[in-house]
Amino acid sequence: FAKKDFAQAIEMYQLALLLDPNLYEAALFTGDVYYATAEQKKAGEWFARAAAINPNRETAFRYWGDSLMKQGHVTEAGDKFVEAYLAEPYSRLSRAAFLNWGQKVNVSINHPEVEIPTNVTSQQQGQVTINLDPKTLAKDDKTGAGAAWLLYSLVRGGWGSANFAKQYPNEKKYRHSLKEEADALRAAIKSYEEQQKKAKSTDPSLQLLAKLEKEGLLESYILLALPDEGIAQDYPDYRRTNLENLRRYVKQYVLTGGAR
């Protein structure tokens, strides 16, 4: 392939597939040969085969998107870049390809803006530090947001000091998890909605979180918009059974510029 001896390259890749029909790279690189020789229809067929072999890798989807762009099929290309992003959302390459497609087709790609005015850290089991924005404790709070975010902090503090060990008995070291963040945000949402019964105004961030929760997209938002090293570890398990939720979140929010 490097020498542009494409006929010989395809022969070798096909031999590799005969030896191992599930060899992702052999299908992927066969498609790459056809991409290089401008046979984009055949390239797409092989990228599709690679993606079928392992849909949890982003490369085939990304290459497939590039091939579709070469053919002027920008909408279909966007679908493939979304799939690449959802296969490996924390990959620099999949994110860059998704954003680059958005720029080329003038689509604003952003997550919804949610301000969480508190920070919770746990250095080790039993040691939790909570830093609250002073605004959350303002006496003239007319939204109920202050009480909601205080509860969010307390729930997360409980996870750092005790709940994590109960929920993840096989993990020796505490980490910030999807379950923890979802639990804390749901507590904040519930508190906020109770406060709203007598509140005089609304809080945009909590309104949006409540909307995401009602639509069944709260976990998708956390995993794609708020990941850290701990939360990212929960992505594969969630994706395995909730891929449609992730797609729906990207379609309704990320592809609409983070629309509320």
Which series of helices and strands comes N to C? HHHHHHEEHHHHHH
**Quaternary status:** single chain
The helix-and-strand class reads mainly alpha
The low-confidence runs, each spanning 5 or more residues with pLDDT under 50, are: none
For the sheet with most strands, the description reads: 2 strands, antiparallel
**Largest beta sheet: strand ordering:** 1-2
Distance between the termini: 47 Å
Shape: elongated
| Rg calc | 23 Å
Q: How confident overall, as mean pLDDT?
A: 92
Number of helices: 12
Q: Report the β-strand fraction as a percent range.
A: 5-15%
Helix content: 55-70%
Q: Would you count the extended β strands for me? A: 2
Structure description:
The chain is mainly α. It is 63% helix and 5% strand. The chain has twelve helices and two strands. Strands 1-2 form a two-stranded antiparallel sheet. A hairpin with a 2-residue loop joins strand 1 (118-124) and strand 2. Helix 2 (24-36) runs antiparallel to helix 3 and helix 3 (40-53) runs antiparallel to helix 4 (59-70). The longest helix is centred in the middle third of the chain and has 23 residues, at 145-167. The chain is elongated and about 75 Å long.
